[in-house]
Specification:
With about 475 residues, this protein is of the alpha/beta class. It is built from 11 helices and 24 strands. It is about 25% helix and about 35% strand. The strands form 6 sheets. An 8-stranded parallel beta barrel has the order 9-10-11-12-13-14-16-17, surrounded by 6 helices. Strands 20-8-22-23 form a 4-stranded antiparallel β-sheet, with no helix packed on it. Strands 4-1-6 form a 3-stranded antiparallel β-sheet.
Length: about 475
């Protein structure tokens, strides 16, 4: 991990840390927007799979400015040290200490009571992609509903799925999937309203004139957003609008911002997300890097009418299966995105098929979960029988794959098991609990009669120990 303070001689410029090996290979590290008259912290790093003397360079595209650096340091981390940092972060940002005070109805302390604490819902959204195969497979339905309470439909809501022929809209599949999700208490991310990749436009859209396209896009936004307004927790409004610019090329530079405004006006209580790949996965991919992502967000927000919009950051998390994830780059990119103070979700996490797929998946998920500004994770995976071939979580007989073992292990690890304890002489005890919903049952030490309460542990509770008083009535 490399850390340095940087400044430029004039204006604002993006400054990149570059590592140069002895054979001349250049490896990009972290980036920061450096300013004149103000020191900015540049954090970055690399995952070395070689032995070499290295040099660190600071680079800007603007060769007319000078880059000033101060207090440059390079700190190596072992995997054990990195994991230890993650665990400390998880303890701090995903859990709270809770002190229970047990009292009789007459307010005297209830000592030696047997207390059972059961978590009923996790406070952290960890979900899974879902496709239309779930409508016809009971095994798929049972597998999904027993594990996940959050989802993103892989294709069912996309424009090419709902209006393959102009003017012939069909939401039958999407509606059925929404119904299934609601019946099973599963929250849905809307994916997606529009897609900026020319390849994924409905065929008839590709032939429209700019005037016709603007009209068709407005109709599409109105159709899908109005249909599901108030029923979703998020919208991916213009998918992958850093890599691609189908609408910008045809309708102008403000096309995305205009579409966000239209969607927000139709569904103002739902968070509007950008959704992009390689923002945290790949330092070599320039267009979607965290600085460009942040600039695009600012463009959208600065468009007239968008200032108060609920905006969210969607990073897909599609990692290479042949090379280990660069967790230092992932973390430094998240640092830049987190400076916006907007919610960050990993929206389509997957790792390419390879010998170490499950290991890399666990590393990615742990890093995402331990990062304080990440507020949700969706894996784009599922049963092999439903067509999830790259990273199936279960095989055709619904037996766990290695990747499925990782997901199940982490779901269990990041949720409190049912706990039992006995209150002390003062009728109290203290425990650290993951954010979420809980049932607490108190059993009288003599009569064996019991009483129960429900309570919630959230990140929004005041700092310090949360105090919960149980006035037991037997």
């Amino acid at each position: 991990m490399a850390i340095t303070w940087v400044q430029v001689s004039e204006g604002n410029e993006t400054v990149l840390a570059v590592f140069k090996t002895s054979d001349g290979k250049l490896i990009p590290g972290g980036k920061v927007i450096a300013k004149h008259g103000c020191w900015s912290l540049l954090k970055g790093g690399l995952l070395p799979n070689f032995t070499s003397v290295m040099e660190i360079f600071l680079k800007s595209k603007n060769t007319k400015v000078e880059i000033w650096a101060d207090n440059i340091s390079l700190q190596p981390f072992t995997k054990q040290q990195w994991r230890s940092h993650q665990e400390k972060s998880i303890e701090k940002v995903r859990k709270r200490k809770v002190k229970f005070q047990l009292k009789h109805a007459n307010k005297t302390a209830l000592d030696a009571a047997i207390v059972s604490i059961k978590q009923t819902n996790s406070g952290f959204p960890f979900g899974c992609g879902m496709n239309q195969k779930i409508l016809t497979s009971t095994d798929y339905q049972n597998w999904f509903a027993s594990r996940f309470k959050f989802t993103t439909f892989t294709n069912a809501m996309k424009w090419y799925s709902t209006e393959g022929k102009q003017g012939q809209e069909n939401y039958t599949i999407a509606d059925a999937m929404v119904k299934f999700a609601k019946q099973n208490g599963i929250s849905i991310r809307g994916h997606n309203i529009l897609w900026d990749d020319p390849k994924y436009q409905p065929d008839w859209v590709k032939t429209l004139s700019p005037k016709e396209l603007r009209k068709a896009a407005a109709k599409r936004i109105n159709s899908v957003v109005t249909r599901y307004a108030g029923q979703l927790i998020a919208w991916d409004v213009v998918n992958e609008n850093l890599h691609f610019r189908f609408f910008e090329d045809k309708l102008g530079e403000n096309a995305s911002a205009e579409f966000y405004k239209k969607a927000y006006q139709l569904d103002p209580k739902t968070t509007m997300f950008m959704n992009e790949y390689n923002t945290t996965e790949c330092a070599e991919d320039e267009p979607p890097n965290a600085i460009n992502y942040k600039k695009k967000l600012e463009e959208i927000r600065s468009f007239p009418g968008n200032a108060d919009m609920l905006l969210g950051i969607g990073v897909q998390g599609r990692f290479d299966g042949d090379n280990p994830p660069d967790l230092a780059y992932m973390r430094s990119s998240l640092d830049i995105l987190a400076s916006t103070r907007l919610p960050i979700w990993y929206t389509e996490v997957s790792v390419g098929n390879g010998t170490n797929q499950s290991q890399y998946l666990e590393e990615v998920l742990r890093e995402a979960y331990s990062y304080p500004a990440v507020e949700g994770i969706i894996t784009f995976a599922g049963p092999e029988s439903a067509g999830f071939k790259e990273m199936p979580l279960v095989d055709i007989d619904f037996r766990n794959t290695l990747a499925g073992d990782v997901v199940d292990k982490l779901l269990a690890e990041w949720k409190c098991e049912t706990l039992e304890t006995i209150s002390d002489s003062g009728g109290s005890f203290e425990i650290s609990l993951f954010h979420g919903d809980y049932n607490v049952t108190v059993q009288h030490p003599v009569s064996n009669s019991s009483t129960s309460i429900h309570f919630k542990v959230t990140k929004d509770l005041p700092p310090g120990i949360v105090h919960v008083q149980v006035d037991a009535r037997f």
